[in-house]
Amino acid sequence: MSHEGGSMMVQAGARRIMARRAASCLLEPAPGDTVLIGGDLARCYVLAVLDRAGEGPARLSIEGDVEIRARDGQLRLAAGKGVDIAAREEIVIEADAVSVKAGSGRFLLDDLVLIGRSAMSHIGRVRTIGRTVETVVDRILTRTKRSLRISEESDHVRAGQIDLRANGTFHANGETTIVTAATLVKVDGGQIHLG
């Protein structure tokens, strides 16, 4: 069997017959395959592939849109090595719930947009490397046992009001310390040492 345009040349004994692949023949015939044909000389069809000549991957090929549906059951795709999904335009997954379980994962995306009502994560260690981080929220609450922030250049905080409290010692140290106020500077303590 060999391909010629949209038809196939089938060797049937000493005769060569032009045939088209039947809609029920999902396995795409390859040159050299043994196939089952049916019909007459005017309209001959390849009904099935009986024996494959090559050792390449078997290809299920269908023209046009395809829908695989399990009406009242579960659809499962299983492979001994791996599963590859490729599309030229878009891949859409729609379900009430999605679960992904793997030993490791990697996402390589030019642009990523996540939209949801809530998110929760339990991660042992998080490391983020980037050029710019922008966060716009109504409220941020952070609770930690220890916190360390290092800025190699400048660190700016602008707020309507700032309240800093320490149960133990509050230590502010700098080569030069400047405290300015438009109306009032108040220092209150049991003891005040200057100098």
Give a quick set of tags describing it.
mainly beta, five-stranded mixed beta sheet, rod-shaped, 195 residues
The averaged pLDDT comes out at: 90
Rg on CA atoms, Å: 35 Å
Oligomer kind:
single chain
Number of strands: 5
Strand order of the largest sheet: 1-2-3-5-4
Number of helices: 0
Sheet of most strands: 5 strands, mixed
Order of helices and strands: EEEEE
Percent helix, as a range, is under 10%
- Rough outline: rod-shaped
The parts where pLDDT drops under 50 for at least 5 residues are none
Class derived from helix and strand content: mainly beta
Query: Which strand-content bin applies to the residues?
Result: 15-25%
Strand and helix layout:
Blueprint: E1 2-4, E2 7-12, E3 15-21, E4 34-39, E5 44-51
Parallel strand pairs: 3-5
Antiparallel strand pairs: 1-2, 2-3, 4-5
Pfam families: DUF3540
Organism: Neoroseomonas marina
Protein name: DUF3540 domain-containing protein
Protein architecture, described:
A 5-stranded mixed β-sheet has the order 1-2-3-5-4, with no helix packed on it. It contains no helices and 5 strands. Helix content is 0%, strand content 15%. The protein has a domain at 2-51. It has 195 residues and is an all-beta fold.
Q: What is this structure, in a nutshell?
A:
The protein is mostly beta strands and 195 residues long. The protein has strands spanning 2-4, 7-12, 15-21, 34-39, 44-51.
